[in-house]
Specification:
single chain; mainly alpha; Arp2/3 complex 21 kDa subunit ARPC3
Length: 170
């Protein structure tokens, strides 16, 4: 997939995240987010600093137009962008970082990509829930919210990754 197609898809998925935030709040226990998967799928040719700026801008856009709490997605997404190359290095292999190659479902498998997505979602939601609760909610509520949000978002993130990750069969 060409980089300009990636940019268009990324912008469309930010809009999809805004729609999810506005219309799919089913329960206070589940927060759906595809933003960490989008950040993890940014091509490795993009530096960490630029990736952090993209994460901040996309998180702030979602905050401004959908969430209501300005800065919560941006503050939660920037650490995911900072840890992106480390997550890829640990779970998908050092050779991807060295060659600046993109990972694919065919090369890495759904299991490894799922684990990498799980870790990025766990980082995102740990920060998100801490900032959202700000010490006012009990630990049990936060733990249930974290578990349910990561689980529900993982299913959506796999679909988003399948859209954003280039298909190496073409």
């Amino acid at each position: 997939m060409k980089n300009h197609n990636f940019g268009i898809l990324f912008i469309l998925l930010v809009i999809a995240q805004m729609i999810i935030c506005n219309y799919f709040q089913m329960t206070p226990y589940i927060v759906l987010s595809i933003l960490p998967a989008m950040i993890l799928c940014i091509p490795l040719t993009v530096s960490t600093n630029v990736c952090m700026l993209i994460a901040f801008a996309s998180g702030l856009t979602v905050d401004w137009l959908a969430e209501g709490l300005i800065g919560i997605n941006a503050a939660s997404l920037v650490p995911v962008a900072m840890a992106r190359k480390t997550i890829i290095r640990i779970f998908l292999g050092e050779d991807l970082i060295a060659r600046q190659d993109s990972f694919t479902f065919k090369k890495n498998g759904i299991g490894k990509i799922s684990i990498a997505l799980f870790v990025s979602l766990a980082i995102f939601f740990a920060i998100y829930i801490i900032l959202d609760g700000a010490g006012t909610r009990p630990y049990s509520f936060n733990l249930i919210r974290f578990t349910a949000s990561v689980t529900a978002s993982l299913a959506l993130s796999l679909v988003v990754s399948a859209v954003l990750i280039p298909d190496d069969r073409k």
